[in-house]
Amino acid sequence: MIKSELVQRIAAQNPHLYQRDIENIVNTILDTIAGAMASGDRVELRGFGAFSVKSRPARIGRNPRTGEKVEVEEKHVPFFKTGKEMRERLNAG
Amino acid sequence: MGGKTVTRADLCEAVYQNVGLSRTESAELVEAVLREISDCLVSGESVKLSSFGTFNVRSKTERIGRNPKTGEEVPILPRRVLVFKPSNVLKDHVNGITGSEAAGEDD
């Protein structure tokens, strides 16, 4: 399922709303999650999962082609941990 | 750097502020979106949200694990796990790189 299909499915369940409102809702949810992670916050959605940011320390990397050493700066990566209920639903039955 | 925890209530508030629906309806719609994504994943289908990331369901085979406390061997049964692959846009965003600076393409 891609974002536009998600919007269509929600729109089908809510015939009183405009499709552009649903798009706006989906984008607001995703932007809020992304924005929180960008400011280093954690997003916890019970039953679904939690988004957080992990930090990767600076390290000396190597250019695999030339073997040359390069400094890689500290960076942050988005991380998702599946929620308990979601994990159970994936393995029910 | 942050340290706050953002919850459903914050998502509902953001939807309420942005979309112009009632608080009750905003909360229902946030729930509907999460439910639709969850149901889709439980059915085994992946969910791809452009400029955010992709959720995939992966099937794991049985393997032998060990209780780290007792050293006892226990079988880890076959199971399904959910993995999230962040998009390049989200990765850049988390590193403080905004749209115009981002050199890489996104899926």
From TrEMBL, chain A:
CDD domains: IHF_B. One of its GO terms (biological process) is DNA recombination. Keywords: DNA recombination, DNA-binding, Transcription, Transcription regulation, Translation regulation. It comes from the Bacteria. One of its GO terms (molecular function) is structural constituent of chromatin. GO terms for cellular component: chromosome; cytosol. The keyword DNA-binding applies. InterPro entries: Hist_DNA-bd, Histone-like_DNA-bd_CS, IHF-like_DNA-bd_dom_sf, IHF_beta. Heterodimer of an alpha and a beta chain. Belongs to the bacterial histone-like protein family. This protein is one of the two subunits of integration host factor, a specific DNA-binding protein that functions in genetic recombination as well as in transcriptional and translational control. This is Integration host factor subunit beta.
UniProtKB/TrEMBL annotation, chain B:
One of its GO terms (biological process) is regulation of DNA-templated transcription. The keyword Transcription regulation applies. It comes from the Bacteria. The keyword Lipid metabolism does not apply. Pfam families: Bac_DNA_binding. GO terms for cellular component: cytosol. Keywords: DNA recombination, DNA-binding, Transcription, Transcription regulation, Translation regulation. GO terms for molecular function: DNA binding; structural constituent of chromatin. Heterodimer of an alpha and a beta chain. HAMAP family: IHF_alpha (MF_00380). NCBIfam families: himA, PRK00285.1. Belongs to the bacterial histone-like protein family. This protein is one of the two subunits of integration host factor, a specific DNA-binding protein that functions in genetic recombination as well as in transcriptional and translational control. This is Integration host factor subunit alpha.
